[in-house]
Amino acid sequence: MISVEEAKKLIGKYVLPLSPVIKPLHNASEHILATDIFGVYNIPAFRQSSMDGYAIIFDDKNSNLKLVGEMAAGTSNQLNLKNGETSRIFTGAPLPEGADTVVMQEKTTANNDKISFDDEKLILGSNVRQIGSEIRPGELAMQKGDLLTPAALAFLAGIGISEVAVYPMPKVAIILTGNELQEPGSALNFGQVYESNSYALSAALKKETIADIEILKAEDTLEELTSVLKSALENNDVVLLTGGVSVGDYDFVIKAATNCGVKQVFHKVKQKPGKPLFFGKQNNKVIFGLPGNPSSVLNCYYNYVVPSIKKLSNKENSIKEIHATLTHNYTKPKGLTHFLKGNYNDGKATPLGAQESYRLSSFAQANCLIQLNEGRENFSAGEIVNVILI
């Protein structure tokens, strides 16, 4: 049995980013770039108006100019402007040949076919987007490691990029074990309980932008679990098994993992809840055997699974750890790190009730886990403790 810190170090050592893939820009949201991206074209490719108004030759700014036409966005017709002339122009439209400045609509006066201007702040090149002002060929647009946010996707689309090399989001399988599990909404027979872990894990994964989630069920036999796990490993990057990871007669996760060629990295962590946690690898596949109790599942998910799926997609861990003031005394046995369901507010962390690993009522109200390390028994109100925000 290893410590929480040792478990986290081993996961950091054994989990590596997935190989980059090429994705169309529309499917690359929230991914991390795997290569630098450089400009291919001058953007804008032509001198472009940044607003509705009139295109002029700057030296004519104090003259009454003759209106000779208009330039709309998307036009393929060019207009040649001479001294003493102006043209109507709209946002995004190319400037007429010879024009160098745009006067905004609000600063103009029209009198028949003559246009005059009143803009004391007008300078040469006002309201004109110059060629290549966004980016030029060969110029660095975005760097390897950058996150593709909505604005980043729009920027890349706007400079003509249609696909990108990114680190993929892992595909995740959730395998539910336990003959006693029953779907919510149906009647319970004697000995049955409602299954909730798939609801917690799939929702938590979606919150981390994991969309490819497969939920599987396995009967409590070694043959069945081995078969289901083998299939899950063939089709996914991460497999999360819930239940069957302890040492009971019907706990087959460790044996099934061995049958599937999974290398055990560790089994059992000095923590509560979630002591029986199993972690293994098969090539670059990541396998977690999570305890069956709901609070244990979520505690292990936030502490170990999230950092793993983030590293697979080459992202920073989204789970934040901070320090806070403990509001109440708390006593626990030595030897296990305890993660208490808690409420964090204004620098203070308050343990909630119902701390048992099978109870979710307090977890449903919690916004943090309060970490009380293994080497101590008594913790006093007012001392500083580690808090994991969830």
Protein described:
- It is a single chain.
- 18% of the residues lie in helices and 31% in strands.
- Helix 1 runs parallel beside helix 6, helix 3 runs parallel beside helix 6 (294-312) and helix 4 (222-235) crosses helix 5 (253-259).
- The strands form eight sheets. The chain has a six-stranded mixed beta sheet, with no helix packed on it. Strands 17-14-18-22-21-19 form a six-stranded mixed beta sheet, with helices on both faces.
- It folds into four domains: 4-19 and 169-312, MoaB/Mog-like domain (Molybdenum Cofactor Biosythetic Enzyme, Chain A); 23-40 and 141-167, Molybdopterin biosynthesis moea protein, domain 2; 48-129, Molybdopterin biosynthesis moeA protein, domain 3, CATH 2.170.190; 320-389, MoeA, C-terminal, domain IV (Beta-clip, Beta Barrel).
- A hairpin with a 2-residue loop joins strand 25 (337-345) and strand 26.
- The protein has six helices and 29 strands.
- The mean pLDDT is 95.
